[in-house]
Amino acid sequence: MENLLSEEEIFAKLSVILQEALRIGTTKIRPEARVFDDLGAESLDLLDIRFRVDESFGVKTSDEDLIRSLGEGLTAEDIQEKLTVRSLVLYIQNCLQEKSQIL
Amino acid sequence: MRSAEGKDLIALVTGGSRGIGRAVSLRLAAEAAGTVIVNYLENDIEAERTRKLIEERSSSCILAKANLCHVADVDRLFLTIKETVGRLDIFVHCAAVTAFKPLREIRSNQWDLTMNVNARSFLLCVQKCIPLMKVGKIVAISSLGSSRAIPNYGALGPTKAALEATVRYLAAELAPTGIQVNAVSGGFVKTDSIRKVPGADMLAEKTAARTPAGRLGTPDDIAGIVLFLLSPSASWICGQTIVADGGLSLL
After folding, report:
1. Which percentage of chain B shows pLDDT scores above 70?
2. A2-102, which class in CATH?
3. Of residues B101, B137, B160, B206, which has the active-site annotation?
């Protein structure tokens, strides 16, 4: 059941997504790695990663919710600096929790 | 353009909540369609704004959030259309994404994503439109990048070339069934997404100066050509890409 995934399990699945989308090795993918600056993602890649997350985890991510999950009053530009692999994991975990509440 | 019976046509516009898609949705609502189905990816606020503007034009609006990259989402979108309105008369494909960078730097995932949203989703939607259209009109939004090498347009241009080729094949295949397929290609159109182009302001200024008509295109400039292609006056145009760029491509 996707909604019972632990943070570690989400990280493992997300790592595969990031490797496939960004064509990077697994060693670069650490929780504290910044998705843009450290992993080399661009804004189109974030869309691609989110689409893959939607399919893989069965959730509906959104740009606005992702930005909101990083902190109050942030803009789309802030995401480039603030988004880490761990913050993405926590966002996915939140999406899964919301999904389980709906179901 | 109004149908002979009045404003009773049913239209689907992908990427219909913003930019050119919104302009097309609003012109359809004002002139032709009693119901406009606005497909969008995720911006609920802009979609609601588009709905309000459509309703102000005395047409009804159905907001249809769907990721056209996912076949299951496309299937759901058309199932909803079938169950709620039962048919389609018009389909306008405006959905597009891109990264503004040189083609030599495009990663395979970026190529796949732009192809999927910009070109493949058009084909998937048309295949689903066919059983819902007795007779119908389909228009895809292209751009000059399909045939010209525009700096930092490497991710978008090839997808638009694929889109235009898809339009030609579908036009030939579907004309005997009463479904007309064409495309509109704009020059530099002032939309929100164009701001993401590196050096957008300077590029806009230079492009306007180079354009014989002396200005950049607006979403409504493109919407006007789309409405023409959807009108009975354009019924003999089949599989063409109409360039509407203020003369930019002439020089």
Report:
1. 98
2. mainly alpha
3. B160
User: Which stretches of chain B are DSSP H helices?
Assistant: 19-31, 44-56, 71-84, 108-115, 121-129, 157-174, 200-210, 219-230
pLDDT at B203: 86
Of the residues B100, B109, B111, B192, the best mutation for testing chain A's interface (the one with the most A CB atoms within 10 Å of its CB) is: B109
Residue A3 has pLDDT above 80, yes or no: no
Residue (of B132, B133, B233) closest to B175 by Cα position:
B133
For chain A, give me the number of helices (H) and strands (E)? 5, 0
For residue B160, indicate whether it is catalytic: yes
B50 and B24 Cβ atoms separated by less than 8 Å: no
Residue B206: both structure tokens together: 């230079």
| Pair of tokens at residue B118 | 């910009």
> pLDDT for A4-29, tens place per residue?
799 999 999 999 999 999 999 999 99
C-alpha distance from A49 to closest chain B C-alpha (Å): 9
Does B110 map to a domain?
yes
- Residue B81: give its domain's CATH number: 3.40.50.720
By three-state DSSP, how is residue B71 classified? Answer: helix
Collect the ranges in chain B with pLDDT lower than 70.
Answer: 1-6
Domain extent for B74: 9-244
Q: Does residue B2 fall inside a structural domain?
A: no
Q: Give strand pairing partners of B189.
A: B217
Note the pLDDT of residue A72: 86
- Say which residue, A36 or A76, is predicted with more confidence: A36
CA angle B168, B180, B227 (to 5 degrees): 105
**Residue B170, in any domain of the structure:** yes
The proportion of chain A whose per-residue pLDDT surpasses 70, expressed as a percent, equals 96
Total domain count for chain B?
1
Residues of B in contact with A63 (CB under 8 A): 42-43
Contact A80, A27 (CB under 8 A): no
For the entire predicted model, the pTM comes to 0.93
Give the residue extent of every domain in chain A: 2-102
Q: Is A30 helix (H, G, I), strand (E, B) or coil?
A: coil
Choose the mutation target among A19, A51, A52, A60 for the interface with B, i.e. most B CBs under 10 Å. Answer: A51
